[in-house]
Amino acid sequence: MPTNQALFERAQRVIPGGVNSPVRAFRAVGGTPRFIARAQGAYMWDAEGTQYIDYIGSWGPMILGHGHPEVLEAVQKAAVDGFSFGAPTEREVELAEAILSHVPSAEQVRLVSSGTEAGMSAIRLARGATGRSKIIKFEGCYHGHADALLVKAGSGLATFGHPTSAGVPPEVVQHTMVLEYNNVEQIEQAFATQGGEIACVMIEPIAGNMNFVRASVPFIRRIRELCDQHGALFVFDEVMSGFRVALGSAQSLYAQAIPGFRPDISVFGKVIGGGMPLAAFASTRAIMEKLAPLGPVYQAGTLSGNPVATACGLTTLKLISQPGFFEALGQRTQTLVSGLTQAATEAGLSFCGDSQGGMFGFFFAPELPQHYQAVMAKGTDTFNRFFHLMLEQGVYLAPAMYEAGFVSAAHSEADIQRTIEAAQVAFKALG
Ligand code: PMP
Are 287 and 334 within one domain? Predict the structure, then answer.
């Protein structure tokens, strides 16, 4: 049996950093990444046969847990009928209908293969539909690795961002403005000075790429008003929150607090593919008709609407649409977060957490941060030690402080209790 270490060494010879997506390399927390051999329900097993309770769930998609029998059957059946045709299928229509039935803000949807593709296409669509170039994003929100979105804030509010990656020319991000999350004053100022040039404001409504931070209701309400006043589009990136925090996604929660609230464009991924490469962007018919072949905004994909991926997504959506699914998932996730909080407090640690549906976050801090700088202010030492103490006890949390966690329907009450007990041990060691 090869060890994780041996596999990592072998991987590093042929794959940059040994991984196909950077966070998997454990750079933030140190140590050797676990090479996963298989997964079932709430558990994963690494190459050495060690079992873990999985709180990553492939970074969100595995809301039913791994290997749900109905999903597996649908995928197997679809695979027998053909992997990919490059021609339309009935199943993509069914999936489009299923997605739209839960998203009243959208009338049409286009399927793609990754969240990056969906986010990039949403921006192009917003620019094409408005005829404007400038976009606003918020520090700490991740929308995939398209060039124009790999940006950090410039020195002043009026200045545009700087690339956060080599290989992105400054000219490519000159139209991207990066503002502070939950800062109403900044976005008001941005619209006051350049409102007529802004194509869209893009946001993770519940941000999962800076741990777990909610956009405040007044913040979302104000952005909606400003977009309406200035003719800009409001883009909700729900790649992570979509069908994860609620069946109607995060937008349904904001619509409860802000009567009539709707984003203009929604971006989905992760859960809608149930673990297969599938993502989507959706909007009103008037906006979506700007897309090729009907309109001038080009967008395409060889594997878009893939028949095996759509089978997986469709069955996943069907199962999570059952009455009571999100109530149960939300309760289980809350039990985890309150158990962790209590255990940390008993150990004398400063700790807080939050969750919505099957998504959660926690901080070694007395109160929930409201934006990226506050998330990062704490330093990563305590979290990194906690991560390894948990991993040693068979609990697999996201290997970085600035990532959200995920609970699935397969996580039992006993799994949650076992996790809290492991945390008691870890917190004691930390305290
Ligand atoms: N948007 C958000 C909110 C995400 O969390 C992610 C991925 N974590 C993406 C976009 C990009 O998706 P993908 O990794 O599928 O390209």
Answer: no
